[in-house]
Write a structure and sequence with these properties.
It contains no helices and six strands. By secondary structure, it is mainly β.
Length: 67
């Protein structure tokens, strides 16, 4: 995808962890990833072209890795 914009719902049950996981493929053009400003990254992502990415967000803390 060339552009990916995600919104995250407010958890209905705050007594459990709510995890959001997704994967996307960045083609010949690097994907522009847009998430809510409340998401803080362990390491600020640098999305590159021609890679597959997996992302996990728990309690507004995001981890992303290229595979």
């Amino acid at each position: 995808v060339t552009s990916l914009t995600l919104t995250l719902d407010t958890p209905a049950d705050t007594t459990v962890y709510n995890e959001y996981m997704f994967e996307f493929v960045s083609g010949s053009t690097a994907t522009t990833l847009s998430l809510p400003s409340t998401v803080k990254w362990v390491s600020e992502p640098n999305i590159e072209a021609d890679k597959t990415y997996q992302c996990s967000i728990v309690n507004n803390i995001g981890i992303i890795i290229a595979v």
